[in-house]
Amino acid sequence: MKKTLSAFVALSALLAVSTSFAASGPDGATLLKERCGSCHAVSRTTGAKKSKTDWDKTVVRMMGKGAKLSLEERRTLVTYLANTYK
Ligand code: HEC
Q1: Range of the domain at 44
Q2: CATH number of the domain that 16 lies in?
Q3: Which of 35, 41, 62, 63 has the lowest CB atom count within 10 Å?
Q4: Average per-residue pLDDT in the chain?
Q5: What is the pLDDT of residue 20?
Q6: Among 31, 38, 40, residue to substitute to test ligand 1 (most atoms within 8 Å of Cβ)
Q7: What's the pTM?
Q8: What is the residue with the minimal CA distance to atom 3 of ligand 1?
Q9: What is the pLDDT of residue 3?
Q10: Cα(6) to centroid of ligand 1, in Å?
């Protein structure tokens, strides 16, 4: 558990650093459609309401299950989810 938490903290730190090197990739809506709809309906996501922290946790959890997202894409998607499904 402690190990998981520090991995999470390290990832979050990396994420903060990568913010200043924002590259233009797919937008949040596209990522959601393409990366989050393969195991369950996208409505599983669009029916949820979460804070940004909780969305980040959910997305990291889904990455653990096999969702494919780079750090940059994770940031874009979490921002999109937090602004849209709150
Ligand atoms: C590899 C398969 C897989 C992918 C890809 C996937 N999910 Fe999931 N997701 C699951 C499974 C299995 C569950 C139900 C079990 C659970 O909640 O752990 C679930 C449950 C959920 C839930 C409901 C539970 C909660 O924590 O609120 C949400 C919301 C969710 N997924 C969002 C997403 C998002 C956003 C993405 C894209 C980043 C995504 N999922 C991609 C497998 C996947």
Answers
A1: 2-84
A2: 1.10.760.10
A3: 41
A4: 87
A5: 45
A6: 40
A7: 0.81
A8: 39
A9: 73
A10: 22
